[in-house]
Amino acid sequence: MELSADILLPGPGTAGRCLALTAPISFWGGVDPRSGAIIDARHPQRGQCIAGTVLALPGTIGSSSASAVLLELVHAGRAPAALLMNEPDAILLLGLVVAREMGWPTPPALRLPASQQKALDGRWLLLSQDGRITVR
Q1: Active site residues
Q2: Which DSSP helix (H) or strand (E) runs through 111?
Q3: Per-residue pLDDT tens listing for the chain (136 residues)
C-alpha cells in the first residue's frame, strides 16, 4: 500500500515502525526529552518510546515549550525518525527548524490525516523525500 502526504518540513528518506498515537499529546510534560518515553500519566500510550519511530500524531496539546522538548530529543538522538501530523503545529515544528539551524540531522515532518494514521500503527513505513509513504 502507498499513501501520499504533504511535506511540512522536508528531510531525507527514512523508515521506521509507526507509532500511531490514539490521543493528542503535549510534548512539554508528556515526553521525556532524554529517553523519548511518553510520561504523561493520562496518555493511553504512556510508557511507549517515540525514539526512532514514525510518530503519527492525531493532534498536539500546545505549549510554547514543545519546540524545546523536540529540540532536546533531536540533540539526544531520541527523536522520532519522522513525524506524521494531522495538522501542522508551528510551535512543535520550530524545534526541528532550530535543530537544522544548529546543524543537527532532523526528521522530516509530513501532514497525513488522522483518519489514515490509525491503520499504520505497528506497520513498517518507508518515507520518501517527495512525501510518498510505502506501508510494509
Answers
A1: 63
A2: strand 109-111
A3: 999 999 999 999 999 999 999 999 999 999 999 999 999 999 999 999 999 999 999 999 977 899 999 999 999 999 999 999 999 999 999 999 999 999 999 999 999 999 999 999 999 999 999 999 999 9
Domains of the chain: 2-135 (3.50.30.10)
- As a residue count, the chain comes to 136
C-alpha cell at 21: 498515537
All residues at 6 or more sequence positions from 108 whose CB lies less than 8 Å from its CB, including other chains: 7, 9, 10, 11, 12, 14, 82, 83, 127, 129
- The contacts of residue 3 (CB under 8 Å, 6+ apart) are 112, 116, 132, 133, 135
CA distance 93 to 15: 20
CB neighbour list of residue 1: distance below 8 Å, 6 or more residues apart: 134, 135
Residues 107, 55: Cα–Cα separation, whole Å: 10
Grid cell locating 124: 513498517
Cell of 25: 499529546
pTM across the whole model: 0.96
